[in-house]
Structures
1.
Amino acid sequence: MDSLKEMYKSAVKESLLAVAKENNISVEDLNIFIEKPPKAELGDFAFPMFSFAKVFRLSPAIIASKVAEVINSDNSGAIATPAGPYVNIKIDPSQVADGVISRILDNVSYGDNSIYSNRKIMVEFSCPNTNKPLHLGHLRNDCLGESISRILKANGADVKKVNLINDRGIHICKSMLAYKEFGEGKTPESEGVKGDHFVGDFYVKFAQWAKSDESADVRAREMLVAWEKGDSEIYSLWELMNKWTVDGIKETYKKTGISFDTYYYESKTYDNGRNEVLKGLDAGSFYKTEDGTVWVDLEDIGLDKKVLLRGDGTTLYLTQDIGTAVARQEDWPFDQLVYVVASEQQYHFKVLFHVLEKLGYDWAKNLYHLSYGMVNLPEGKMKSREGTVVDADELFDSLSRLAREEIISKGRESEISDLDFTSDSIALAALNFYLLTVSPTKDMIFNPKESIAFNGATGPYIQYMGARINSLLSKFVDQVEGLKIKPEILSSDIERTLVAMLDEYPEFVAESGVQMDPSIIANFLYDLCKSFSRFYHDIPILVNDDRDAVFTRIMLSKAVLKVLKHGCSLLNIPILEKM
């Protein structure tokens, strides 16, 4: 069965052809445009007639009137009303609701599409440094990358989620040098501190030390050169501190529902990047200056020039990204590689993609930077080296505590079998929904107290509506044998709205995939929950002498829950039975 939107587009097209025939007008191709009426009571779909005025030699209003007349006479499951130059169409639930509800309940993966079938898409996200724990900015990156990966998969793509651990470079050496100077042999275990936090404290320590000792930065640079030359003592310290950090970061991933198919490590790809640059140098794509620095001229893309290799032979972020991209294409030949990275790096990726093209890699044109805006707390901007970042673990734990307090304050803790699990699940919903409800390109302020609220546009509100539907379904104890859906029962505006929204849901999933924007789904889910809440309050769902009427509305509620679960799974939001 086609979606209602496609069905009514077809009805409008057939009606236009009928009007054309009636007026002896020859038409070949009719592009049917569809909009939303400004008010729900006007209808569910609006079709503008402006574009047909010239060929029909009639005013748009007259065309709209004639089209509405034909549609209403065809018994097509639509109620058409001319509104000036528009044809507004209202769903007639008695004609279509049974099909919509059955299509949802009978389809195991309702909401999935095939627009990216046979397409291999690699998504890189997170990419932490091994000198500090994850912070709020990482959380936006993580939930965006995880959600986009799930959305692309729901649209038929073969998706591989990859993470690049930035485990080498001057910033890593700074935390290593500080530990060597001030660590006194301490370990995360001896101090009872999570490994990534333990190492991060020394990165902050280095910044404080460097303010009073000019030699600190020089020694860090010397340490990096020694590491690249394979100094065994420095390499052993590097391995130890990296393990502390990565183990700690993986704990945060587990807590926040983030996973990867493959981990790449900068330390294993940067040398490949250096070789690629040297090949480009030999081919004349790049050039070397007297101090040994290798450069690329970017004049052909409207930029100046960029260093690819330092004079001392050490590499840069750009160098290792070149090597990593080549390694990934060799490992898993992709149709597209999506980099989920903050908007601050737009210049970096423009250069990276161009350099790879200069190196002769045709697949470079399929690289895409999914740029997202900055995120901060109301208090202001974060600064890692000053230790003023919003720590991811602390933020998550504080959200979990707030969720627990809310449950206890409402006296519902006795109804919940696992309070810790429920509190953490609510925290995850609060975090992900708040971060994803804003379009990726926009900067945003994350307000923890707002995010954890049980009403309004929040994750906990979405979860609460899911729990409410679960509770409603559990109260329906009738034997379903012999009961049937009576679509004519769904005659109210809110029931019509719910049917239309459920029918359109796969289109929101598709649009979210094309735009790579989870906020499209997040905002749809909020609107769906608001509509169901109105339905729940206005309609006596379980109270009706006609058991078929009860069954019909229960099936509608069940369809809403199924769509809600599907949408929440794409946003990494757990649905709870009780909360």
Note: The first strand starts at residue 45 and ends at 48.
2.
Amino acid sequence: MTTIWTFSTSPLLLAFLAVIWIGAGWLSWANWRRRGGKGVAANELLRFVVVTLILFTLCKPERVRRIYKSDPPEIVVLTDVSGSMTSQDVEYEGRIIRREDWLKGRMETNFWKSLENSGAKVRLEPFAMGPTNENVLPDGSDLNKAMDSARVRSKNLKVMLMISDGDWNVGDSPLVAASQLRSARVPVYTVSVGADRSLPDLLLEPVAVPAFGLLGEQISIPFKVRSHLPRDVRAMVSLTSAGGVDVKKQVVIPPYGTVQDSVVWSPRALGEYTLTINIPVQPEERLTDNNQQSFHISVRTEKLKVLVVESLPRWEYRYLRNALVRDPGVEVNTLLYHPELGPGQGPHYLQKFPGTKEQLSEYDVVFIGDVGLGGDEMTTADADLLKGLIEQQGSGLVFLPGSRGRQLSFKGHPLADLMPVTLDEQKVEGVSQVSESNLLLTNEGKGHFLTMLAADENLNEAIWKNLPGFYWSAAVMRARPGAQVLAVHSNLRNTAGRIPLLATRPYGNGEVLFMGTDSAWRWRRGVEDRYHYRFWGQVARWMAHKRKMAQGQGVRLAFSPENPQLNDNIFLQATIMDLSSAAGQEAMRAKIISPSGATETIEFNSVTGGWGVFKGSFVVREGGTYKVQVFSASGKHKLDTEIIVSQPKVEKTGQPANAGVLRDIAVMTGGKHGGIDRFEEILRAIIALPEKEPIEERFRLWANAWWAGAMLFLLAIYWAFRKVLGLI
């Protein structure tokens, strides 16, 4: 380390300052000779010193300290190992390989040895993730932190080489670290790996699929297709299992667009299935190994308990009851309020409505036919129980009105608020027509689980158009807010539009369905029970789905959302199946074990109403499988289940390389940028760099505030001393 003083002045200015300095000295000497005395001599000497300091400052004096590094120069090589480097878009030696494979090939050549031969110390630093905290996804790329950390750790950093695709999605902008490197006079040389535009390709992106399904249930399998082709692509998406192709669906993908849709799969047997969604490879595609996605799904069976409540044994009631009785996955009980003969008799018949919460809570789905309040049918207490069952325990409710118009008697009772539609009170007996009408599927109904009578959506729509129609329908005015209309009357409409006849609506924890015609039994014409049984079987399973998510010893568990993602708040609802007073007062807890092994215990809050419902929630901070153990204080109620949390992929594969940010880093720091074709050229440029100049630290005395303050202080002493001497 050496220290020198430098001045910034011209010869003319220096001569001018010398003249002023000599003149100031002569003036001080003359004043002392004229007035005499030691006090005058000291005062004039102080003035001369102040003038000398001012003239010295005008020469802009600077103290320069040069620091010479004794450590060898360092070269840091940053290599990107993030998820985006798995993209396959590098054209190399006539093949298309992954970005990480090209980088791996360069690493195997030990290219950094040539940099070490230049006398520098080379340090290899792979990077991917950003800083560790609960809000950062583990698959992110933080270019800023990678560069800044390397700068801080280095003692004598000469140059930095970054090999990356430029994808940064975590942390501050890389230009923040680049500006600090520029201040430290450290150039950054960058090599972008990957194509600057997407290769012609179709790819199926990963999506969250259901972890389980019930046998006989329509299971929706979502898919997402992204196109990097300059034309419309009409392709057939197929879902295959070990037995072959199960479902096909045609989609049209716009140029450079995305299509997100789903196929409906009906499992034929219990077991564990590995399913594959596939889209055909197009002739111009450069990549052919990303046109399919495989996943695992478990198909199990659960015995559903269904209650059918009716008055007159009309045809729809008879065929519906037969369909449910013959369904091996359904246990059905029937309550027939015959207005003339009294309650129906026989197997599976009840003599009265389940009058307690314990009795009614056993049912997963309740069908309410042409039944109402009073008249030896349902009582207000029965309706209160039914509303609580749907609202709190998550059971399903199906309204099947009839020509007696008895469901209008629910008006004034909260049970009427559950209905997805508003009925016309002026037309109690409904609407009868001479000509046959049909159910016309809406856009929402064309792909809904309840209306899928065929695996293919286009074939399903054709089936509905050809189903036998009906002559009677309920008098509906409009759908209620929040209802999803699946089918409308093919002929009738009013000021609100077409008359909704098939609609669903969530209420509390359950689902409610309205079927505005009692002629679904006519769908049997020519095909027997194919469509009629399938429709009502799907209804029962879809409406009972929430109650069958997980069940253990004396308790069942439902959670929402069913397919949670990272940082979601998962709401848990534990329902005790034994509704005795002692059981309902027990404390319920849940032990949550995260994928990393961290444990959290949550306390459930009891929901008022006496339905044995407890609610709690927790926030997921990791992706993967969470183990959930629900238990009561007494240990009589236990349940073990798993919740799979999907983690959004921050690192996108198949995206073009972000060469722009790498170029900006190189330009800002005085380095160079290039693609993989300029890799050797960039290495030679780094080797040719001269030795790093010593660090200079400059102290500008002429611009220092303390220096200016000191001169003002001396001037103040001078003027005060003059006053004391009586020179003013």
Note: The two ends are 51 Å apart (CA to CA).
3.
Amino acid sequence: MRAFFKILFRGLDGFRRILHLLLLLVIFGFVVGALGTSLPVLPKEAALVLRPEGEIVEQRSGDPIELAIAEARGLARGETTLSDLTDAIHAARKDARIKALVLEFDAMTGAGQPTLDELSRAITEFRASGKKVIATAAAYSRDTYYVAAHADEVYVDPYGLVVLEGYERYRTYLKGALDRLGVDVNVYRVGTYKSAVETYTRDSMSPEDREESQAYLDDLWNTYLAAVAKARGLKTDALRAYVDGYSPAVVAARGDAARVALEARLVTGIKSSIEVEARVAELAGADDDNASYKSVSFKDYLRVVRAEDKIKSHEDRKVGVIVASGEILDGEHPAGVIGGDSTAELVRQARLDGDIKALVLRIDSPGGSAFASEIIHRELLAFKATGRPIVVSMGDVAASGGYYIAAPADEIWASPATITGSIGIFAAFPTVDKALAKVGVGVDGVGTTPLSGEFRLDRPVGPAAAQLIQSVIDRGYEEFLGRVATGRKKTRDETDAISQGRVWSGLDARTAGLVDQLGSFDDAVQSAAKRAGLEPDQYAIDYLEPSLSWAQEIALSLKVWSAGVIVRAIDTQAGRPALAEVSRRLLPLEKDAERLARMAEPNRLYAYCFCEVY
């Protein structure tokens, strides 16, 4: 009997093993099938359609898994990467299958002017190939029109308009409300112009903030007008007159804003989407099945051309590129945030890769943690010590901590409209003893040292603590000055004169010596290659990014389809438009609150520029 059960158990165990193996094979086959999705088939002739969704950014922000789930649910945050757009345009310029480029702007919300300029340069290069660029939208805003102006033909809907609203910087000031609540925000800073926390300490904009903000906003607006006027073959004064007299002109035209734009030569014609499709069909061929024109989206096109370009040459001669986009925070963080440790690790990887002959750091950051900035700075110096060049390319913003990590570069490139500088440091934390006193709550006790209890939120900051914090802030500022002075080859006093927390446009930053050259990301890459002794077209560009785990790779490849199916079955659109509008209105205040929450690490100094431009 014992032998019988022994044989039975062996048989069952063997059967279990077979089932286990079969299950693994099924899972493996499912994953391989998901990973092996077929590439789109490109027509022999087609128009490439660029339809940016949301904001154009240097990096999509967020955890890859969360992004995949949001995408599957149809709730992905509206972001399109600049490199995806420009890579598609550059490839299409030389691709005989692509007969025209169509720009659709109805889903785009905006971007910084330097980002818009990078995209517009790619469009201008595409036009140089002799192929037509057609821009179309129901309505154009300041940002969408900047890009559209660089097309051969610009069309607006008969019910559309072209509104160029200029640039602004308005902030919400909370001191009055905080005073009524009995909340003190204790601020310690260095720099006459360091206005980062004024929203909590003032009722209105300080004279220094007003001075610097007006200066760089004027620079941005002047460069905008010059670029758009040149693209449309207009005089800058004529474009300025259109903007300044827009409302009266539309009133005089009895509300026909499209006609006002046409008469000012901002658009080529007034056409409905159906009429635009007919025009593109003349260039790229008609698609009778869809009653439109033969087309391919830039996302599908990129999948094809990148697959075709998988076999790269010159792998032993590379220019490494690291994108540093977002706020600078301590530790490791996903794309869209610059983690001190995670970004330093990327620089370290570049340093240890002998095939990387030069490094380009693309910065789009208002700063953040001074300590995290220092960690990145040290790793950049270690790379530089190998004798290989570092070139910085500044995007929309490279200020405060964003400039701190730029300082070691051999050369710094920026756009005329880049926001940079803001060299200064601050610390801030609230105390609520007055608020508690209003409801009859008191705090009392004893301690053993002058600092005992001086960092509590429910007690006022004492003199010993205040002196300590300000002393540390002063030293942090001097360290910051030292980093910049060494990198820029200036004296301490020369650096201090252009620092003090002041924000500069790229145009003025070059005059001040904080920037070496004005130009594009491509210009910076070419300069880095030249400094490394690499011949044009004889090197590869290697983007260094955090590697994903195998689980993340699978999740991204599967597109988390199950989440998409379940959520789409129960989702409802009811109430979303109204909620979206409320959210948009509260966005600036929400961003300020989020920043303070992220900067809540104890014992940390911050080099941050509250210099958004809307």
Note: The radius of gyration is 28 Å.
4.
Amino acid sequence: MPALTKNEKLNNWIKETAEMCRPDDIYLCNGTKEEYNLMIEKLKASGSAIPLKKRPNSYLFRSDPSDVARIEDHTFISTSSKDEAGPTNNWIDPVELKNTMKNLYKGCMKGRTMYVIPFSMGPVGSPISKIGVEITDSPYVVISMHVMTRVSSRVIELLNAGEDFIPCLHSIGAPLDKGQTDVQWPCAPIEKKYISHFPEENLIWSYGSGYGGNALLGKKCLGLRIASAIARREGWMAEHMVILRLTNPEGKQYHIAAAFPSACGKTNLAMMLPSVKGWKCECIGDDIAWMKIGADGRLYAINPESGFFGVATGTSYDTNPMAMDTLKENVIFTNCALTDDGDVWWEGINDDVPSHLIDWKGQDWTPESKGDAAHPNARFTAPASQCPVICKDWENPNGVPIDIFIFGGRRSSVVPLVYEAFSWDHGVFLGATAASETTFANIGEVGSLRRDPFAMKPFCSYNMGDYFQHWLNMGDRLGSKAPRIFYVNWFRKNHDGRFLWPGFSDNSRALKWMCERIDGKVGAKKSAIGLLPVDRGLDLNGIGLSPKNMEELMEVDLKEWKAEIPDIEKHFAVFGNRLPERLKKQLKELAERLG
């Protein structure tokens, strides 16, 4: 086999993979528009890509009903010891897992082309960026990686110059015999799906799924699971966080990184149009932040991705107008419904429910039909560059300096709208105990409480007790230059089950309070759980919120918080002797403050 690059390690890996997977052909991707169009033509010819008449250069895909979301039960962290993977991960011994997967990979690309995708996570050449190479047999993955990462000849040049890379192997697990007709969404049955990570080797192997983060291996697999392990070793941070810039009326900029579990409004926050007069919000990233300490001792963040892979369902001009404007062209839609005039539709897009649709399974749908027209986890994949509020510095190779960290979750009671941590250690405690009521987007009974530390439970590829310690260590290194830490809950309800806070653009009011706290412009009152806004500290002009609602929103009920303590103790107990003493101290102090 002729060498595809001048990188010996890469050539050897391509050769080994081809010998194992037995593709009919091998193609080295270069990220050009011509290449994208070539893949689209292939996907149209197979019936996978449905062109959308209403949106230029946009296509609808329908996945197999068994392949619609992240599959946590089939996602593995494979380290030399189970203790290193920790209690939050599915662990399998590396030798056993590799043997299992090598058997699955044997001949798995027969009848297909093996695509080699060199990509950069982060701006090419940035000191915070990393290079990956994904091998896949899915043209859908190729076009999606074009959008979500930086695939280009510049990456090939860096590889040719000897730059190291993270190998990411993916197969849909559906070989084709000679003359066999392909299906619209080829994938393996659920029991043969494996999303495997070997953090000690910086290696990703995925088999059987063609969907989202299971197949676009730059996303959660490299961007968070492998990156979190590298970040601990190298002394930086890879976090499940949006990054945004807020500018006040005087032109002062603040950079905020916020971590929320799925379905808590991350993308909405990243693209928010502030309702507070004179304030401006710009999006830098909606999902992942990579952060390193700069020469000035501050923490600098980049968005390692180049696109948005967002949940379509519930996205509308009411909830996220900037996302809607981002989706006008050049978009890959997956598992949305199709309108009769050639557009996409999903529940929550507007109040006008069409009388007829083709649903996400390809069946006729009317308002009388059972089930939703779009899958609850229907997705859009769109270039970040076409977002109307994308920040001009979103691709700055040096990143942006982070002033504020926000943690939060979906809680219908107990947790107030916004409060500030007493200190860095207290802030780490807030992140480590973050909890959210579950939704369709994550696994578990809908509405049950799930502790999701730092919104990283599904994505931290090593023992989370050590991860908490890494946060404490980063705070020690940052010292007085560490970002201030806050906690929010947009989802508190009254006794009738109605949301107390309008949310969306009005979330800017909580963010304004945080910025003014940093500047020393507004005070705060100490409570048992943290620092709360004092009267008139929160800008409520024009919001029309009753004093009673505001009181409920900000209430800290000591009895309710005392009831949280056993659950936090149970949560912490899971980490055994890996739980940092400093977090045990924070829990003890909270219990004492609650009385």
Note: Residues 308-386 form a domain with the Phosphoenolpyruvate Carboxykinase; domain 2 fold (CATH 2.170.8.10).
